[in-house]
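Supplementary Data S3. Sequence and structure tokens for construct A.
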Amino acid sequence: MDRIDGMQSFVAVVETGSFAAAGQRLGISNKLVSKRVAGLENQLGMSLLHRTTRSMSLTHEGERYLEGARRVLAELEHLESEFDSTGGLKGTVRVAAPLTYGDTAVAYAANRFVEQHPNVTIELELSDHYVDLAKGGFDIAIRIGNLSDSSLIVRKLGETSMKVVAAPTYLEKHGAPDHPFQLSDHVCIRDANNPDPNRWFFNIDGQQALVPVAGPFLANSPPACLVPTRAGLGVFMCPDVFLGDDLKTGRLIELLSGFPSRTLPIQSVQLPSAFRKSRVKVFVEFMSREIREAATE
């Protein structure tokens, strides 16, 4: 058995979660996938996967081998691309992104990317929770906000500004605050993703200030917080990339524009092994251009 085939099958099983799904990705039967993985284990003299009738998980040796196998496959793909006579990109790019931003900006960009590179497949997984790139088999994740994991390759693609917004129906009942400190008199909808959801950051007369806010609705998702905001139930501080046409159509009104808040980076994060893939590099460049162009519209 070719060891590379075994590596590809093993990595595909881990990333897709089953032999059947791995077979679909590789274009072979699940029996052949199972045979290749078993052959790889025999060659190595160790078990890489715990198998039961209902579940499958990595052994300790499998966890260690997975990282190396991904690195070898990425290097092999990079080498082959250097001698590809067609000169075109091919293969799969697995992308993780936040729900609403992924539904809109990332999904639209991915669609245009595939139109330009028809031999590339984009697998997009949307979640407002940070995913483990290595465990999930992702080539790239799009994240909004400051990151702390220095083991990843991080590139800034663009940025988003925090804006305070409210629906016209809320403002008709409660009026609009003229100063951040007046927010104590208002119902504030809070995003649990913020480092301190109970205090909002503002620049007041050139000084940084954290203004206490309170309200009955707290969620770890800007899209979820926008539901009661649009219904006129409170004031919300939101990254502008999630506002879409809310401000243009007047569904929401920006407040306190004279007191700017934080600007957050929109970033791509990659494992070092994925950085070697040509299609991943080109996709990151494409996303960066898309975000810059959207910011100028």
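Construct B, processed identically:
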Amino acid sequence: MDYAAALDVALNRLHDEGRYRTFIDIERRKNHFPRAVWTRPDGQQQDIVVWCGNDYLGMGQNPAVLDAMHEALDSTGAGSGGTRNISGTTVYHRRLEATLADLHQKEAALIFTSAYIANDATLSTLPKLFPGLIIYSDALNHASMIEGVRRNGGAKRIFRHNDVAHLRELIEADDPAAPKLIAFESIYSMDGDFGPIKEICDLADEFGALTYIDEVHAVGMYGPRGAGVAERDGLMDRIDIINGTLAKAYGVMGGYIAASAKMCDAVRSYAPGFIFTTSLPPAVAAGAAASVEHLKTAQHLRDKQQEHASILKLRLRGLGLPIIDHGSHIVPVHVGDPVHCKLISDMLLERHGIYVQPINFPTVPRGTERLRFTPSPVHNSRMIADLVRAMDGLWSHCALNRAEISA
């Protein structure tokens, strides 16, 4: 076989479909986020504003976080030195798990190197703990949840997105005695819509199912202490396993689950994705713990972020641009074509110094390509005005439809 030719075919297919993904070289500047510097392909540097980052609240630049990381780095060095079972558990890891358990009002928490790994490792391990387990998974769950469910070797059922009636139909068709788990998200990041948490919890109570919620795009952002949508809605105690990330609103790196002490102990003991992975560097764990603690009392950052998201939505809608608005902090603008989506992204960057990546298949279905903006508390009114002005001009330049997409 000509392996190089096969690779050419695979890569050319992406180019032909207009969805080949390119990385750009950007350098975040301390104390200046969301401003950054882009090194262009010709080697020249250009100041840009980042509009697609997941550091939703700018915590990656927060002095409390940086001070904690410096202290841990100076005390312990760079890496953890091993897996959690082999010298990779430090006071910083224990401290982080304790503050996460407190955040979600659970008995325990377990940290992983990413929320992707936390989802994959946990969901693929649960059938080992509950033989015969049936997992009911929302159709739009994140790839990490899909992969974990796929790999677990147990029974799975896919219910239509946020369709509790369909979920009920699927559960009623199964053996009442079989162990069950419902896996879903609190915020689906591509559309910014919310999961029906209460309705799913009610159904889980009725049929004796466990509940597993991914709060990755909500932790730090919602609730009086930033524990997520379940906290905001007073439903945390009804969720058995909460998955979250430390790499978005908390501005650092890593993922976790929060659950009962027995659940965390069992996952810790059985999940290969936990057992055989080197633990987070102590400096990262220290910075994450400082960020979680800071955001437990930093409601002003959440309020400012929501304010900026509302302003951006209002101004884009006023121009007739097809935003998708479900009331969350995420602002997707529907383009519907991969070529135009990348073209607008490129022109925003090159002509206006605005960085937003195109979101194409397979992240979203074909025909629903979009630009996904993530306003933060540190985006100012001038930045918002510049973005709106640029989007207005480029939308006209590309002769795109201005009819609004209904939520």
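The two ends are 49 Å apart (CA to CA). The chain is about 40% helix and 15% strand.
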